[in-house]
Amino acid sequence: MKLDVSFIWTAFVELLDAIPVTLAITAVSVLCGFLIGTAVALARQFRVPVLSQAGAAYVTFIRGTPMITHLLLIYFGMPMLLDAAAEALGFGFRSASIPMIVFAFLSFSITAGAYASEVVRSGLLAVDRGQLEAAYSIGMTGPQALLRIVLPQAFAASLPNISNMLIGMLHGSSLAFTVSVVEINAKAQIVATTNWKFFEAYLAAALIYWGLTIGIERLSALAEKRFKAYSRGGVS
Amino acid sequence: MIALSGIKKSFGKNEVLSGIDLKVNRGEVVAILGPSGSGKTTLLRCINYLEKPDSGVISIGDFKLNCRQHGKKDVHALRQKSAMVFQQYNLFRHKTALENVMEGLVVVRKVSKAEARERSIALLEKVGLGAKLNAYPSELSGGQQQRVGIARALALNPEVILFDEPTSALDPELVGEVLSVIRQIAEEGITMIIVTHEMGFAQEVANHVVFMDGGVIVEEGEPKQLFRYPKEERTQQFLKRITPEAGYSI
Ligand SMILES: Nc1ncnc2c1ncn2[C@@H]1O[C@H](COP(=O)(O)OP(=O)(O)OP(=O)(O)O)[C@@H](O)[C@H]1O
Ligand SMILES: [Mg+2]
């Protein structure tokens, strides 16, 4: 067998169609992940009873199990749960009507939430306690101090970790192919099997992932410049 | 007027404040002196409720708070009555000098942005930083940061401004610029409580001096009286130890 260079291009073009799906999974899971993660990190940081213990358990379980396991558990577990609930409540709802991508959104958000909580926590730790005290001293309420003073600084401090996580979730989104969501990796498999040219198709997929990753790196460099303008931190 | 009565505070088994009573009249400048660990910082932090006293009553102006029974709203109300100038400045690092001063006006006092901006610029000019409005704290010297800190406190027009060793983190050549700003606002009749090791400054600016040791007020009085003729032995010892080192004199 010989490398078909022109087919790499053909596959590349076909794969472009699947980019929005991959980006949607990445964006949704990272965004929801950060909402969950911020809530968990705050609950743990401020030692909210019950919530902080529940948060800790969530983080250790999710980080202690592979992302694909979360996906499979959600994929097989959720429909059972929903159908049982619908039946008990007398709704005409059937889990079969849920689009596959919803399982990916849900499960990857749960995965991302656990990792994001650690990202947010390290960001919170990077903010000096004096910042919170200064906010209180000028009469801010707790939520005001958090939203206006602490979280923006924690966010700026976490930017490198956030970009890391975005890249991780971008690559991880390829697991969605196991529940038949046609994202870049699944599309590459389809293109490969219909033409019997695996290497070329996966090479095209690799180039696309790489390109997207470089895009994320660029964006995060821009964001660091924008949000960390105030700091002369680091050793440079 | 500010009145503290029976303020007690322990950290674990360590009783740091053992019942502090203090009255400060409107427009008065009170200097608090005392050896390290005597509870000066803790007392200031209690007035601003950054530290919760175990018991006692704090009243500032027409607002009174019993430390044993109060809600979150009361704490919030109490904090609005005072402003703090920190030893480590604690400027908001992600905000410019101007934004630091505006923040409390806009967010807490709900002043319009345009008005807050105007007032903040005037205050920064007053502390000699008219040219540094858009500088971030990391771009300012310690003395400049502390002057922004003072402007931030002044902006809120509080009943009292609390200073915790405002110059002790500064290089000696920067101390003067901060002290002269404090002297200037003292002359405007703003009520202040200043914890300081600058004896000369305390003697010059304060109307009332309080000497603390071991969590109690050992002696208080007029500066001249207390510095020249301290009654208590502990005060005498403290002053003897500290006076030769005081680099500042009037
Ligand atoms: N958050 C805290 N937890 C435990 N102990 C504390 C805490 N803050 C202060 N202390 C203790 O309280 C005592 C008084 O501290 P404080 O900072 O009020 O002293 P100070 O008079 O301001 O001293 P200095 O002149 O060194 O600033 C010290 O023994 C200190 O160790
Ligand atoms: Mg102190």
From TrEMBL, chain A:
It is a multi-pass membrane protein. Keywords: Cell membrane, Membrane, Transmembrane, Transmembrane helix, Transport. One of its GO terms (cellular component) is ATP-binding cassette (ABC) transporter complex. It is found in: Cell membrane. This is Cysteine ABC transporter permease. GO terms for biological process: amino acid transport. Belongs to the binding-protein-dependent transport system permease family. The chain crosses the membrane at residues 20-43, 55-76, 96-116. Residues 19-220 form the ABC transmembrane type-1 domain. InterPro entries: AA_ABC_transptr_permease_3TM, ArtM/GltK/GlnP/TcyL/YhdX-like, MetI-like, MetI-like_sf. GO terms for molecular function: transmembrane transporter activity. Gene3D superfamilies: MetI-like. The keyword Cell membrane applies. It comes from the Bacteria. It holds the Pfam family BPD_transp_1.
From TrEMBL, chain B:
The keyword Hydrolase does not apply. It is found in: Cell membrane. It comes from Paenibacillus oryzae. Its main location: membrane. The keyword Transport applies. Residues 2-239 form the ABC transporter domain. Signal peptide: none annotated. One of its GO terms (molecular function) is ABC-type amino acid transporter activity. This is Amino acid ABC transporter ATP-binding protein. One of its GO terms (cellular component) is plasma membrane. It is a peripheral membrane protein. Gene3D superfamilies: P-loop containing nucleotide triphosphate hydrolases. Keywords: ATP-binding, Cell membrane, Membrane, Nucleotide-binding, Transport.
